[in-house]
Give the backbone structure.
Amino acid sequence: MSNPKITLDTKESQLPRQRIIQLSLQPLNSQRLANLCGLHNDHLKLIEQRLGVELRNRGHDFEISGEARHTQVAATLLEQLYKETATEDLQLESVHLHLQEAGLEALEEEGVKEQFTPTSIRASKVTVRPRGANQQGYVNSIRLHDINFGIGPAGTGKTYLAVACAVEALMKDEIRRILLVRPAVEAGEKLGFLPGDLAQKIDPYLRPLYDALYEMLGFEQVNKLIEKNVIEVAPLAFMRGRTLNNAYVILDESQNTTREQMKMFLTRIGFGTTAVITGDITQIDLPRGTHSGLTHVMTVLQGVQGIGITRFENRDVVRHPLVQRIVEAYDIAESAEEIEQQKKRSIHHGH
């Protein structure tokens, strides 16, 4: 690819420095160009909107204008996406995922430098590529530590990446079995109210874990491995009294464990076992007055050697861009409610 030509526009000295980049994408291929731009130029519009730049193109020649650091990110992104059009049919979702990484690059230019080693996970039928510094760090941490915590909002890939690492380890014969565990507490429902036998009652709680497994191994293979007990799905209560060796154990939705349950789970870990505990402390569904085992264990294990802790943020959300905005809107609303309650309490105490 030819090097982009860069010119600077410094007429507006009060505003951030403006830059114009001329970019020519090679090799010339009209089908790949259409794939890059998207239907009705939807992909280009998304890039403009998210990075705050203006894109103009005549065929394969692009002009990118905007704030200096954003135009460079946009140029790098367009080149990367154009490379991918050789083998991939680009969708809005994949452009969004690349933009997540582009946002991290922009942060790095602002001086928030995050170190991570690019990596990928060979999970049988699919290759999973962690996106951005936090996901990369999370996967590297899982490979290095026996016990790992992934904490953060919905859509940050905590559970999906943990399942991918487990499948990879199983395929490499590094472990003998995978255990998927979840506390059976969901927004006030209890297992007794659900129809069917125990397996049918547990299924809805473990659906996200099953979905990830089906994608990586295929429906038939997953069912065979479940029949052979190589993959086991169980509610947390069934872990009591067991010691797990040469296994990969994923405890999902761990914010809904009690203190006692969390301690019980962590003390089940045997030799050759990797445990990944995922959760979102903003979505606790435990009965009022019951303390979350996840929030408690974070203070108990702070600084303990050999334990990996990855904290995901709203900017790590890799689902639809609206999910990120919804998470942020809830955070703002909940903070405002908390301030309001504190005011009321102080007024009450004043009287």
Notes: The longest strand covers residues 18-24.
